[in-house]
Every structure is written in structure tokens, then in C-alpha cells.
Amino acid sequence: MRNAQEKDLLLTNLRLPDGGPPGRRILIREGRIAEILPAAAPDPAAPTMDLCGELVLPGLVDGHMHLDKTLFGLPWIPHAAEPFRMSRIENDQNMLPSLPLNTASRAGELLRRCVANGTAHVRSHVDITPAFGLSALEGVLEAKQAHAHAVTMQIVAFPQAGVVRAGGQKMLDLLDAAIRAGADLVGGIDPCEVDRDPKGQLDGIFDIAGRHGVGVDIHLHEPGEMGLFSLQEICLRAKALGMQERVTVSHGFCLGGVKESKQAAAAAMMAEAGVALATHGAGGSTLPPLMLLRRAGVRVFCGNDDIRDTWSPYGNADMLERAAVIGWREDIRHDDLLAELFAMASSGGAEVLGVADHGIAPGNPAHFFTIAAENVADAIGRHPLRGKVFHAGRLVASRGEWVA
Amino acid sequence: MRNAQEKDLLLTNLRLPDGGPPGRRILIREGRIAEILPAAAPDPAAPTMDLCGELVLPGLVDGHMHLDKTLFGLPWIPHAAEPFRMSRIENDQNMLPSLPLNTASRAGELLRRCVANGTAHVRSHVDITPAFGLSALEGVLEAKQAHAHAVTMQIVAFPQAGVVRAGGQKMLDLLDAAIRAGADLVGGIDPCEVDRDPKGQLDGIFDIAGRHGVGVDIHLHEPGEMGLFSLQEICLRAKALGMQERVTVSHGFCLGGVKESKQAAAAAMMAEAGVALATHGAGGSTLPPLMLLRRAGVRVFCGNDDIRDTWSPYGNADMLERAAVIGWREDIRHDDLLAELFAMASSGGAEVLGVADHGIAPGNPAHFFTIAAENVADAIGRHPLRGKVFHAGRLVASRGEWVA
Questions:
Q1: Nearest CA in chain B to A310
Q2: What mean pLDDT is reported for chain B?
Q3: Which CATH number covers residue B236?
Q4: CA proximity to A373, closest of A152, A141, A55
Q5: Are strands B368-371 and B386-391 parallel, antiparallel or unpaired?
Q6: Same domain flag for A131 and A22
Q7: Which residues of B touch A76 (CB under 8 A)?
Q8: What's the total number of domains in chain B?
Q9: CA–CA distance, B378 with B381 (Å, rounded to integer)
């Protein structure tokens, strides 16, 4: 951790995303942006670092990931599950505990790749299941602490194997224990399709959230009308319990699989209930109408979801590449919409994650990265290698590699 | 161009995708793979190059792109068209001729990025329209010649502005002239939606193809039943004219928007007519059922389509990243399917493009690249920077940069 005794740092030869005048410099002091100096201002007395004329962008936010499932750090392991979700859930319970690298080490491998790609903040779901107990959580908490100087983290206690079908009250007790052990939010999963008892699951997890005053983030893969039903049940509870702004639905594939009038009604319902949507771009599923949701007032943010893990062979932890894929699927082509897309992968996620003072402005924590791109649209479109990554003013990665 | 006098080259410290024994080396002679030497064989007398233990993979194939539309080489130009296809078509006619960099230069910029990403063969559509005449073709032909030592190219004479609606017989005469000027195939576009005269367009372009003995590649964006109707008309002509194996439908979004029984019927029809499908993963449109098509015997191959151009702000010319996006949308997770996916972006495309002797085997042209990946699945999943790229045995790119 930095402290007040650490030297100031003056960053020179950089460009800012506002496209404003050249010659500005960033002065870092005590981990924060002390000042953005105009070209005419003299250099303060401080060590300098040349940013090679690259664009400086605020830290990216990976708002939906699974640190505990990654296979990074291990030789290639072929995908082993059958092609349906319940098989992947069951496969995890057998496979993850028997891997020759523990959760903390694998999560650390992935976190360092996130950081090297300019990610400053993550929300990771962590499996809490009867088979795992709190062991995956303990591993991710260890990785979180070891990388706290480089990335901030929210952890969702995620009942991957279900709640009602995985023990009911015993499972709820486990989720409660996870919150007490350091998880920041309570999770849920497909209350109809996985648990076949939507009331049982949702009452249970919202009760935990209420007792601990934490947020909720629910994986909702359910398609079509079934998914909309579950979404309604989630929104009703968010509103009734006064949890507006503290509930997220992840995926929400159902929103992409119903007709436009139902999409619009669901968007209005989510906006009124203050329920946010996390998207990874939907893969083989139906993509929610992201811009329609935003226009209705729903906070939409992005995450990579599975990154080289037991669920997916794909991924490199790059949120700019993820934004490009999402924008390409959502038909986002104009610069103003690309700026919105960038916000969905940065400030928009920061807002939902409760990260204060996100962005490149005096007084804010010095979480940002450099990239050889002309502007935000170009940075997303090509997503070239990141130059330098700073967290709390400290250089934590360079040219795509973690700085030890 | 290389000639017989050029020195042999021995590539050492490499891995081959068959996962076979280490210690093998590749001997290049006269631009071809002369020999793959087993570990026990002595080194032949030749200059050597150390490939740093990287995996050697055969040259990638970008089977659908638009070299003439790219904006690479220019400062960022915001997307200017309205959000529907006809606006993009009209925008091109105004915008492309007024750019401050000519077609050959822009196409060259993009081609070098393709090569730097390991692409050895491309099929580029080039706009032939009343406004452009053959000027875009001339520019792309110039770029093709200038880069012939690094990449092979097929050119489709593409009536982007339509055929019937863009002059009818005059437009057909222009397409005919394009073939005589050096284009390799005749193109088409949405015979219902753009031309509103499917018989007029298809009879016209198949007539040109027949007279010149060239193939056909038709952009088919049309959705649902309209697209299926056009697809039927294309397949009927391919069969009736004995053009099996020489006709491609690009995109074929309609195949993703109809029920499974119709998909299966269309796949059987395409297989029987020998009509191939080129896909870029469908963006905001409905993705054809790629594996169902393959299982039915349809040749499916991949292309990047728009890369930083007047139609799209996205793209970096990386066919491994493109394969990852397509595989992610198609729910491809297992190693055997990832190997098929790699073929769709390499040997499968080579077959449709008529590239002889594709692949890393003695006697074949030495078109391949190296990558710091464990195997093909890993190379797609993470798509890291390419190491070295060879074309006809010559080093043409290194660490993602074109070698002059």
C-alpha cells in the first residue's frame, strides 16, 4: 500500500479521452490524481514517467466473472461437461476440488491478467455449494488480499448448485456464513429452472441480504416467459424490501427472447425497481436489448463471465475486447454510442459496484491505464495491448504483463 | 519472389499442432516445406531460425472481407451512416471516393494487419458500382500485387449498390468488365431486398459466371422466409448450371431465423447444390446453425467481414479472435469442436478458395505462423499475439508487426 511518505509522480507525454489540448500532465500524490496540469503550467518537482503519447483511460470494470472456476495457471484442460447447464454445474463439483492448483493460485493468475488488461475493479461470483462449503470463497479472499494493491473486488456468494435443491435451509445457512466470512453480496441462480421453487429461493436469499444489509446478484439464464416471470419476482422483492439500487440480474437472456412490447415493459419494471443488468454479450443465448434498457433507465454494465475455466475455453480477461463483442452484437457503430459502451465497461460498472470517485479527475484515486489508441472508440474497436496500468498511482502492469 | 537460388532455412525449437514428439524441425526450401525432420535426424546444412518453442499453425484464411472499405491508414473517422443497410450502401458511394488516402493504400494497410495476424489467404469483396466503376477494383488489384509475396487473394466483383436497381444491363456489363480486369468471382447482394428482382439479379450474375467460368459469392443478409427464398433460388441455379463447389452464400442470416426443420431442409439443399457458407458470426443478426450445416455436408468457412471501415468501427484483422467469437456464439466448447472451428478459419476456407496444398506437411508451400499457445484450442481461446509469420518460406511479420 502507498502511504503519504511515498514520492509524488508526474506523468508526462499523454493524451486524455476528452480530446482536449496536448501538453497536459497528471500529478499523482498519495495514490490519487492530485492535479491535471495544463500545458502552460511549469513542471512540479517530482519524478516523471513518460507515457509515450498514449491515451489514458479510466480503470475498466469486470462486473461479472468467476475467479474460482478459472483454469489459468494449469496446462490446458479440455472442456469436460455435457452441452447443458446442469451438466456444467455437476462437473464443477467433481472437477474443481481435484485440480492440482488451489483456488487462490488460479484466481491470482486470472486477476493478474485482468489487471494487465486495465481492469481496476471486479465483481466475482464464488461458488458456495454443499460440496465446497466456504473453501472456494476462502481461496478467492486470499487472492483478493494478495492483489489489493492492484484491483478492488466485490465477491458474490453464489449458490451455483442451487438453493432449494441443494439443501434448502442448510444451503441458506451456508450463504449466510459466506457473508459473515467476507462475501459482499448474496447470489442466486435460475429460481425456476434450477431450484424449481422460485419463492423458496428468492425469499431465502433476499432474507439474508436484508439481515446483513448487502446487495443481491442473481444469475438468470432462464429463457422467454419463464425468465420474465423470475425477473418479475426479483423486481417485486427489490421494491418491496426497499433494495432499489442494490439488486443486479446477471445475463437476463429472457429479455432478448420476448417481443418488443414485453421488453419495454420489463425495462420499465427493472428501472422502477432499481434492478441493474450485468451482461457478457449472451454467447449462444438471446441478447437483452441493452440500449433499450439503458434508455428506460436501467443500469447496464458488462463482465467477461467465464474466462478459460470449467465452463468455457474462451477468454483473455480483456474488457475492451468484451466491449467490442457486445457492441458488435448490439449494432453500436456511432461514436456517441461507443462512448456509452465504454461507460458500460467502466464508470457504469463502477457505479453499480459502489466504487467511489471513478474517472480521471483531480481528487480521484489514480486507477487508469494507457493504450496506443486515438480515442475511446478506437480503443474498443481494435482493443490493442495496454501500455501501462496504474492502481492507486502505482504501476501494476506494463505492455500486457503484470509488474510484480 | 523467392527463387531456387535462395538459401534453405531450418526452423528449430518449435511445436507442431499434432502434439507429437518434441525436437522436430522444419526445413524450408524454395518456399516450400521440404521436410519435417524427426528429433533423431541430424541438422542439415542450412541457416537456422529459433522459433522460441512456439506452436506452428498453418496460415489462416479470411474468407470474407472488404479491403476497399477500410479506414485503416487514416485518422479516426466516426461512423457516418444511419442504422440501416441502405444508408450504409449510399454512404459508401459518397464517402469512399473522397477519402484522403486511396484504395490501394488503405487496402495495403489492412492487408499488412491481416498478415501480421497470421492470415495467408483472403477473399475480398470489392465494390463495383455505377459511381465507382472499376476504380476500387484497380486499387485492390494494386494492393494485391504489392503484397503477393505475403498473402494470396481472391477478389469478388461485388455489386454493393445492387444490380437491377443500379442499372441492370449496364451494371452487369460493369461486373463483366471487372472479371476481365482481374476479379476472380462475381458477387451479388440481397436479390429481393436490395434489387427487388431476384430473377433479374441472379440470372444476370450466374450468366456472367458461366461465360467466364468463375465462381459466385452472394451477400445474403435477407432475414427469415425472404432469405430462404433467395437461398433456394441460388441453390437451384448452382445445381442447374453445374456450378457445384463454386458458389458461396455469405452471411445467410436467414438460416438462423427459421425453425429447426427448415434449417435442416435448407442445409440439405445447400449440401446437394454444393453451395458453401461464409460467416463472420452474424453480429446483431441471427447466426446460421454452423455445426448443423457442417454435419449436413455444407462447407462452412469464416471471415472478418468489415474491419475498421465505413460499415463498422470494430476489427483488428485477427482470424483467431474472429474464430473465438464465432465459437462462443455457436456454443463450441470441446477440443474436437474447437479443432473443427480452427479448420473453418484455415483449411476449410482454403478449400473453398481453391488454395492447393494447405497445411503443415512436406511439399506444401511454407505458409504458417507461430504463436505462444499450448494447442489449437488455446490459440483460439486466448488468441495471443502471433510470433513469426512465414509466407512461401519468407518471414513476413514478427510479433504482430509487418516485416517490410
A1: B333
A2: 96
A3: 3.20.20.140
A4: A55
A5: antiparallel
A6: no
A7: 374-375, 377-378
A8: 2
A9: 5
Cβ-count burial of B180 within 10 angstroms (0-12 exposed, 13-18 middle, 19+ buried)? exposed
Residues from chain B contacting residue A374 (CB–CB below 8 Å): 75-76
CA B275 to chain centre: 16
pLDDT band with cut points at 50, 70 and 90 for residue B189: very high
Instruction: Choose the mutation target among A113, A114, A312, A325 for the interface with B, i.e. most B CBs under 10 Å.
Output: A325
Residues A17 and A85 in one domain: no
Residue B6 pLDDT level (bands cut at 50, 70, 90):
low
Residue that the C-alpha cell 439464464 belongs to? A221
Q: Are residues A38 and A112 in the same domain?
A: no
Burial of A48 per CB tally in 10 Å (0-12, 13-18, 19+): middle
With a CB cutoff of 8 Å and minimum separation 6, the contacts of A84 are none
At B365-374, the pLDDT tens digits run: 999 999 999 9
Q: CA A191, A192, A196, A202 torsion: positive or negative?
A: positive
Q: If you search the block for the grid coordinates 488460479, which residue do you land on?
A: A106
Residues in B whose CB is inside 8 Å of some CB of A read 75-76, 78-79, 81, 83, 283-284, 308, 311-316, 321, 324-325, 327-331, 333-335, 338, 374-375, 377-378, 380-385
Nearest to B374 among A75, A335, A377 (CB): A75
Residue B379's closest chain A neighbor by CA? A314
Local confidence band at B19 (pLDDT 50, 70, 90 cut-offs) = confident
- Which residues of chain A lie closer than 8 angstroms to B114, CB-CB? none
* Gyration radius of chain B over CA positions: 21
Among candidates B76, B380, B382 on the partner chain, residue whose Cβ is nearest the Cβ of A378: B76
Contact state of B312 with A327 under an 8 Å Cβ cutoff: no
pLDDT at A7: 80
pLDDT given for residue A6 in this prediction: 64
Identify the band that residue B244 occupies on the pLDDT scale cut at 50, 70 and 90: confident
ipTM surpassing 0.95? yes
Query: Chain A partners of B81 at a C-beta cutoff of 8 Å?
Result: 333
Same domain, A292 and A157: yes
| Owning domain of residue B26 | 9-59+358-402
Do A140 and A206 have their domain in common? yes
Contacts of A253 in chain B (CB under 8 A): none
Apex CA A296: angle with CA A358 and CA A251, to 5°? Answer: 70
Place of cell 441480504: A209
Q: B333 vs chain A: nearest CA distance in angstroms?
A: 6
| d(CA A97, nearest CA chain B) in Å | 21
In degrees, rounded to 5, the angle at the alpha carbon of residue B217 between the alpha carbons of residues B211 and B222 is: 125
Q: At what angle do helices A260-273 and A224-240 cross, to 10 degrees?
A: 20
- Nearest CA among B286, B294, B230 for reference residue B268: B294
Inter-chain residue contact A325 with B327, CB threshold 8 Å: no
Residue in A238, A193, A189, A210 with CA at minimum distance from that of residue A64: A189
What is the distance in angstroms between the Cα of A29 and the nearest Cα belonging to chain B? 34
Do A18 and A88 lie in one domain? The reply is no
Taking CB atoms and an 8 Å cut-off, how many pairs form between chains A and B?
Answer: 93
Rg for chain A, CA atoms, rounded: 21
Query: What is the 8-class DSSP label of residue A2?
Result: -
> Looking at this protein, which amino acid is placed at residue A229?
F
CATH number at residue A55: 2.30.40.10
**What digits encode the pLDDT tens for the residues A62-114?**
999 999 999 999 999 999 999 899 999 999 999 999 999 999 999 999 999 99
Which residues of chain B are within 8 Å of residue A308 when distances are taken between CB atoms?
381-382
Please determine, for residue A3, whether its predicted confidence score (pLDDT) is greater than 90.
no
Greatest alpha-carbon span in chain A? 66
| Residue type at position A18 | D
Coil, helix or strand for B381?
Answer: helix
